[in-house]
Structure formats: C-alpha cells, structure tokens
Specification:
14% of the residues lie in helices and 26% in strands. By secondary structure, it is α/β, with parallel strands linked by helices. The relative contact order is 0.14. The longest helix is centred in the first third of the chain and has 10 residues. It has four helices and ten strands; from the N terminus they run E-H-H-E-E-E-H-E-H-E-E-E-E-E. The chain has a six-stranded mixed sheet with strand order 3-4-5-6-10-9. The chain has a two-stranded parallel ribbon with strand order 1-2. The chain has a two-stranded antiparallel ribbon with strand order 7-8. The termini are far apart. The radius of gyration is 16 Å and the shape is globular.
C-alpha cells in the first residue's frame, strides 16, 4: 500500500514513539520497502527545476536518540532544511540551528481532548509546549504540529478534529 503513494520529489518519514514499541528496524524497513526515505538522523536532498532543499529527519525524543548535528551534516551553509521530528518540542533544539527553516511534527494528537476556554487536557511527553498548528520559534524557525488522524491512550477525540495537511513550498 505504501508504494501506491506518488510523490514527485520523494517520500520521507521519521519514526515515532509507537514505532519503537515493537521493532523499530522492521518498521523502518517496511517504510523503505514502500519507497520512503526513512530518516534516522539523516538528510537527503530533494528538488526540481534547479531548486533544491534538504529534508532532514531525527529519531524520536522519547524512544530514539535524536542527533540533529548528524542530520544536518550534509547541508551547506545557506541551504534550506526542512526538518521532520516526531516530537514538536524538539523545535527548541532546531531553532538553535540557523539552517533549519521549517520543522514538521506530530505526536501530540492536538491534545486529542480539548475543552472550551481551556484547551488541551493532556499531551504526551515532548509535546507540552507546541501542541497543534503553526508556531514561530526563535528568529528563523517555523514549526507546524499536525493533529494527525489517529488516537493514543484514550479512544476518543473531543473538539480536536483529525487532520491531514498539505503544504506547498515556494522559493521565497
């Protein structure tokens, strides 16, 4: 089923905390067999029409060993880096690296259960500061935290709709 997804510039993934609960290597191999670049503290370049960006990915903060320096190693100064980090609070570390312009994350499920005038009730570790939506972090980093489509721990969503997000990146 993963092979059926078509993406002209490539398909990219990072592992999340639940991927480590079984066999993280097997999950990574399944993604790779489906045509995904499974980024475990790595980066690959993607581009077209003479424009290129780096897609970097780090391992999960709670179950893996994220190494941002290793992930950014191939990018040269001035090249744009889009960072995939399952945990949104990794943005604090990413913001310290001027090369990272955009971080895309999940993990929080948007809080999954939200109350009017209060917001999210519970979020997992490493998604306490950034729960859902767009944030400007530091002087240059843009962060987007997707609510996702699944559930975790509690088998319910309340005032927190599932989300699939499409981004169009343009040279600026």
């Amino acid at each position: 089923a993963l092979r059926q997804f078509q993406a002209p510039l490539g398909k990219f993934a990072v592992l999340g905390n639940h991927d480590y609960y079984g066999n993280a290597g097997e999950v990574a191999n399944t993604l790779t067999a489906g045509g995904f670049h499974t980024l475990r503290n790595q980066a690959v370049q993607a581009g077209r029409n003479g424009a290129a960006i780096w897609i970097a990915g780090v391992e999960d903060m709670s179950e893996g060993k994220p190494d941002l320096d290793a992930a950014l190693q191939p990018a040269k100064s001035g090249e744009f880096v889009l960072l995939l980090s399952h945990c949104p609070d990794f943005a604090e570390q990413a913001a310290a690296q001027e090369a990272v312009g955009l971080q895309l994350s999940g993990h929080s499920h948007g809080g999954q259960v939200r109350l009017p005038f209060y917001g999210h009730v519970v979020t997992p570790p490493y998604s306490k500061k950034y729960v859902m939506g767009h944030y400007a972090v530091g002087p240059a980093l843009q962060l987007y935290v997707n609510r996702g489509i699944g559930l975790s721990v509690y088998p319910i969503r309340f005032l927190c709709r599932p989300e699939v997000t499409l981004f169009t990146l343009r040279r600026g």
